[in-house]
Amino acid sequence: MTGFEPAARLAAGFSDPKAQALPWSDVLTVLESSEMFWLSTVRRDGRPHVTPLPAMWLDDRLHFCTGAGEQKARNLETNPNCVLTTGTNAYRSGIDVTVEGAAERTTDAETLGRLSRLWRDKLDWVFEVGDGIFLDDTATHPALVFAVAPAKVLAFTKNPYSQTRYVF
């Protein structure tokens, strides 16, 4: 999907009459530059679970990591569907983006190496690549890495107010 540009559709019912569909390039800028995202998963009993974490956009996917025993990893074992949200907390400015899709483990050493460099360069967070996992500097907290290929992306602008859906 690299280089793929999804079709943008303005949701007129949720947008100012002056609004236009936001170009995908603007959404990519948000996904590539954001440091923090909110990950929403579903627990086995159906209750939601939301947590902040850093994520990296690479190869048309959002990547994040977590310890194998953490709630989000346990949730993804039974239901890989999730949402990653990023943007601003401003009411009148900025772009908010949600990415919906299914999380899949990323274990390929080459991809993990590229991702570890992104984490280091963007956040000064150093990971070594282990056998299909990330290792922190103490090698005591292995992290599983997940990739979410977008099934649906929504972008919300605030001036003028708009909602754009991207079809994949």
Report on the structure:
This protein is of the alpha+beta class and 168 residues long. The chain has a single domain (7-167), classed as Roll (Pnp Oxidase, Chain A). It contains 3 helices and 12 strands; from the N terminus they run E-H-E-E-E-E-H-E-E-H-E-E-E-E-E. The strands form 2 sheets. Strands 1, 2, 3, 4, 5, 6, 7, 10, 11 and 12 form a 10-stranded antiparallel beta sheet that branches. The chain has a two-stranded antiparallel sheet with strand order 8-9. Strand 2 (37-42) and strand 3 form a beta hairpin. This is Pyridoxamine 5'-phosphate oxidase family protein. Residues 28-153 form the Pyridoxamine 5'-phosphate oxidase N-terminal domain. It comes from Rugosimonospora acidiphila. InterPro entries: F420H2_bilvrd_red/Heme_oxyg, Pyridox_Oxase_N, Split_barrel_FMN-bd.
